[in-house]
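Query form — protein Cation diffusion facilitator family transporter

QUESTION: What is the three-dimensional structure of this chain?
INPUT:
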Amino acid sequence: MRTDMRGPNRPRSPLTGQEADMSRKTLWVAAASVLVGIIVLGLKALAWWVTGSVALLSDALESIINVAASGAALIALQVSSRPADDNHQFGHHKAEYISAVIEGVLVVIAALTIMREAYNGFQNPTLPDQPVKGMLLNGAATVVNVVWYVILMRVGRAYRSPALIADAKHLMSDVVTSAAVLAGFVLVPVTGWPQLDPLLAGLVALNVLWTGWGMMKESVGGLMDAAPPPDVVARIKELVSIHAAGAIEAHDLRTRHAGRITFVEFHLVVPGAMTVAAAHEICDRIESAFEQDMDDAIITIHVEPEGEAKHRGVVVL
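ANSWER: The C-alpha cells for Cation diffusion facilitator family transporter are given below.
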C-alpha cells in the first residue's frame, strides 16, 4: 500500500515490491488472454467454415472482438502499472477503465455486425453442412472459454483490475452465446427449418449488445471517480474512528476508485493545544491501520484545530 499523508507536494514513491509483483501477474494473465482468444477464434472459425452456419459465424465474429479487447486490456495494464510521474501525479490506474470502455464499444460493433449477417442469412436461409463436426469444434471453444473465464475473474477480483474483470465478463457473454447457439443448432437439422439458424444469430447479437452496454456503463463510473461500494466506505470510516484516538472528529471524508487503487481523503480535527508531533503520530497510526487492513489505498489527511470541528462525520472512539 502506498500512502500520502503529508500533503500534495510530497514526492511520489515508486511501485513497492508487492505492487510490482501484482502488475507482473496481471500482465502475464492479460498476455495469456490474447493467446487463448486466438485459439478460441480459430476453433470457432473452423466450425463456421465446415458448416456455413450464420449462427456459428456470429459466434466467431464475437471472438474476433475478444482478441482485440484482450490486446487492449494488455496495453492498458502496461500503462496502468507505471508509477506516478510529474505529468500523472496520481498514477496511471485509470488506463484500465479506458480499456474497458473500448472493449464495450467493440462489443457493440460486434453486435451490429452480427445483426447484419443474421439479416442476410434470413433473406437467403440454408441448412448447415456437417452439423456434428461444427458442434464439436464450437463446444471445445466454449470449454476453453469457461476455464479461462474462471481464471480471469479470480485474478481480476484478487488484484481489483477493471480490465481483467471486463475481459472476464465478455468471455462469460461469449460462453452464454455459444451455449445458446449450440442448443439451437441441434434443432436446425431436426426441424429442417433453415431460418432458425439466422434467428439464433440475431438473438446472439442482442445478448452481445446488452453485455457491451453494461460494460461501458460500469467503466464510465470509474472514469467519473465513482465512490467505492458502501461496504468499503463503511470500513474506511470504521478504521478512522477506531485508530484516531486523541483526535476529536474526522469530517469531509471523500473516496474514489481508480483501477485497483482507492483514494481516501478527510479532515482530522485535533485539540488546538496538540503539538504537530502528536498529530503526526495519530496520522501514522491511521496509516498503519489502513496498511494492515486494506490493500492499495492512498490516503491524504488534512489536520485542523478544534475550532474547525463541524460535529458531523466520523466520530472518534
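ADDITIONAL NOTE: The chain has eight helices and four strands.
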